[in-house]
Amino acid sequence: MIFISTMAFGQLPKTCGYMDIGYSSKGYISYNGGAVMKKLLLGIGFDMSINSGEEGEYYSEINWDEFPGDIVSSGKYIEPLFLQLGYNILGNLYCGVGLGFGEVIYYRNMYDNYHILGNNGSYYINAPSGKIEFQKKVFATYFFPIKNDLFPYLVLNLQYATISGFAGSVGAVMGM
After folding, report:
1. Which CATH class is domain 7-174?
2. Mean pLDDT calculated for residue range 74-83
3. Which of 94, 119, 98, 122 is nearest to 108 (CA)?
4. Which end of the chain is more exposed for a tag (fewer CB within 10 A), N or C?
5. At a CB cut-off of 8 Å and minimum separation 6, what does 134 contact?
6. How many Å apart are CA 44 and CA 81, to the nearest integer?
7. How confident is the model at residue 108 (pLDDT cuts 50, 70, 90)?
8. How far apart (Å, rounded) are the C-alpha atoms in residues 57 and 131?
9. Dihedral sign, CA of 108, 114, 118, 121?
10. What does the alpha-carbon distance between residue 139 and residue 85 come to, in Å, rounded to a whole number?
11. In 3-state terms, what secondary structure has residue 140?
């Protein structure tokens, strides 16, 4: 995550917490949060797919190979959790990297010609693979001072992650 700040607006306190939420170019919602301690930014992030490719109603009771004739399409997705480390490079601007990991989830979109299952016949099943994939992230985060007693800094974040692409997010500083 990336935050950009200038000294002209004011310096962050030595310790504070932050949260932000945004959207990525590959259809993920990006959540980030953490703490700033002096010149270090320690955080966690989570990228949640909002367009995984799954269509119809979900059925957990159907086995993976139970109705092979109903398969319309299939695919996979990952929703990684990131551990992030950043460093203050100028004013209120922090740049850093993140390492993430997430389980690969396979899915199958199905169609029941008799319309017994799903929404007008459309349903999907999924299966965790047990396979963990690692992801990388680079970010820049800027803490922009605003005149507000509840949230004195606006958080602006830009990032690039291997799974979710480019993302931008907005948030606030808490716990000053």
Report:
1. mainly beta
2. 96
3. 122
4. C
5. 99, 100, 101
6. 7
7. very high
8. 25
9. positive
10. 9
11. strand
